[in-house]
Design a protein that fits this description.
Elements (H helix, E strand, L loop, with lengths): L2 H5 L24 E5 L1 E4 L3 H13 L5 E4 L15 E2 L7 H7 L4 H21 L11 E6 L4 H13 L4 E5 H7 L5 E7 L4 E2 L2 H15 L2 E3 L4 E6 L4 E5 L2 E5 L2 E3 L16 E10 L4 H7 L6 E4 L6 E4 L5 E4 L22 H10 L8 E11 L6 E5 L4 E5 L8 H13 L10 H4 L10 H19 L2 H12 L4
Parallel strand pairs: 1-12, 2-3, 2-13, 3-9, 5-15, 13-20
Antiparallel strand pairs: 4-8, 5-7, 6-7, 10-11, 11-12, 14-17, 14-18, 15-16, 16-17, 19-20
Helix pairs in contact: 2-7, 2-10, 12-13
Bound molecules: flavin-adenine dinucleotide.
């Protein structure tokens, strides 16, 4: 029996974050007809941030939020939940997609994180937030130039960063794989995502939002002056709808042209004992990413577990509940990668393993799609980087829906769209070849590099 089989022996296939007795009661489903000034569809971070911000901006506004299942059961209860000021999936990516707007995006990112913290404080939300920063680590010496470049870039834009060599990074987080790192120290760290979502849910209800769970939207009817949104057992008459359905919209005939729904996986250990903690260090509890495209990301929880993520998979049609992820086998390779990263934890057991939906676009960052002559806006596509960015996505989505005249709405991120992505079956075939090429390019080379260049030309930053 190898490490992974043993360590995954008693694993529960459910998100650690949601397996919590502190989970709030489920709000009643919508039955019958109601009216609202604003309808928000989706009870993940985007929908919850939108609900809180809409009410705070205008307490008199009548806001209804409907969620198909339970709040945070989509991506928002499943992430690694490493947060930072970046709005566009990292500074490098922001420069790649919006080089002319970078100063504005940096400032908006700082403002967003300040607003995030302020909301937590004002609404007394305990999301187990830890501000130890973010470590971007190099795996192997050949990645050290990436780290040096990342460091220079962050310094140029005024970030509080430190460049660590192999000894420096291992003194922080003791992995034999880590050969260097950039440690970004301000306004970044980790949160408990479900506790954040449940705190935002409570805040929204206290502010007067009418929140209905177990209420899937089935269709939007446009009756000219207003919209009639049908749910399973009811309907909402409204003039504005903010769709916060992220990867769940990747089956929609229009939205899916620019959004692919993929899956990513995470495993979580049992709480580490004192000797295990001693062997790993990690006193500052940074969120850790590595620089590979098929990357791993890892963090500590408040009760001293390690979560370890990163094994992207695409299921045909962007399946948001694939049977293939409801068995232990797909988590095996992730567990083996954990073992390589932290070989000193050879006796550890994983208690939880899960996957979650990611809305991927060629931008790797949030965008906005407008329907029904501006009465409906969809905000999403965070590409795996949306815990703090969803607050910004919700704010801009609302501003577009309300036709506000904000200077940021004139920036490229708000006025342009990510590239078109080929439909099925090319999407499925392309993703299979790409994920295989990413896994094996370094080792085997050949056609894999040519293929990855082609995918890059489509707009994906790999
Ligand atoms: C494994 C994994 C790791 C991640 N790690 C990180 C990380 O470390 N840092 C980071 O910043 N981000 C991370 N992310 C990304 C982050 O979790 C998401 O970007 C964020 O949660 C998106 O929030 P959302 O509200 O837009 O989407 P979701 O949370 O998916 O919410 C959408 C909601 O819409 C509901 N819905 C769908 N259709 C309907 C309908 N017809 N009617 C009503 N409701 C509907 C769904 O049930 C769902 O609750 C990760 C994501 C995953 C999956």
């Amino acid at each position: 029996m190898d490490f992974a089989q043993k360590a995954l022996g008693d694993v529960t296939l459910f998100p650690l974050w949601l397996d919590n007795p502190a989970a709030p009661a489920v709000e009643p489903q919508l039955i019958g007809r109601t009216e609202a000034d604003l309808l928000i569809v989706g009870g993940g971070f985007t929908g919850l941030w939108a609900a809180v911000q809409a009410k705070e901006a205008d307490p008199g506004r009548d806001v209804v939020l409907i969620e198909a299942g339970k709040v945070a059961y989509g991506a928002s209860g499943r992430p690694g939940a490493i947060v930072s000021t970046s709005l566009m999936h990292g500074l490098n990516n922001a420069i790649r997609i919006f080089p002319d707007d970078i100063e504005d995006l940096e400032r908006l990112g700082q403002d967003n994180m300040a607003g995030f913290l302020d909301t937590l404080e004002r609404h007394n939300i305990d999301a187990q937030q830890t501000w130890g920063g973010e470590l971007t680590v190099a795996i192997g010496d050949e990645r050290l130039p990436d780290i040096a470049e990342e460091y220079e870039l962050h310094k140029r834009y005024g970030h509080d960063v430190e460049l660590l060599d192999a000894d420096g990074v291992r003194a922080e987080v003791n992995s034999p794989l880590y050969s260097g790192a950039v440690w970004s120290k301000k306004l970044s760290g980790t949160v408990h995502p479900a506790m954040l979502a449940w705190g935002l849910k409570r805040a929204a209800i206290v502010l007067g939002v009418r929140l209905h769970e177990m209420t899937p939207m089935e269709e939007i009817g446009d009756e000219g002056g207003h919209l009639l949104v049908k749910t399973h057992d009811g309907e909402v008459k409204t003039r504005k709808v903010l769709l916060c359905t992220n990867a769940f919209a990747s089956g929609h005939k229009h939205i899916k042209r620019r959004v692919v729904g993929i899956r990513d996986r995470i495993i979580a250990t049992e709480p580490l004992n004192d000797a295990q903690l001693e062997s790993i260090g990690w006193k500052n509890r940074q969120g850790v990413y590595d620089t590979r495209t098929q990357l791993n990301y890892t963090r500590m929880t408040q009760d001293n577990r390690i979560t370890f993520g990163g094994r992207l998979t695409y299921y045909y049609g962007g399946d948001t509940d694939p049977a293939g992820d409801r068995v232990v086998e797909p988590y095996h390779r992730l567990a083996m990668a954990f073992n390589k990263t932290f070989p000193q934890l050879g006796d550890i057991r994983f208690t939880h393993a899960w996957s979650g939906p990611i809305a991927l676009t060629t931008r790797m960052a949030v965008h906005f799609q407008t329907y029904h002559g501006g009465k409906v806006v969809w905000a999403g596509g965070y590409s795996g980087f949306g815990v703090s960015t969803s607050r910004f996505g919700a704010r801009i989505g609302l501003a577009k829906l309300d036709g506000l005249d904000l200077p940021e709405l004139k920036l490229d991120f708000a006025t342009t769209m990510p590239n078109w992505i080929p439909p099925e079956p090319f999407r499925w075939l392309g993703s299979k070849i790409t994920l295989y090429a990413l896994d094996t390019a370094d080792e085997k080379g050949g056609w894999r590099h040519a293929w990855l260049k082609f995918v890059y030309a489509l707009g994906f930053p790999i």
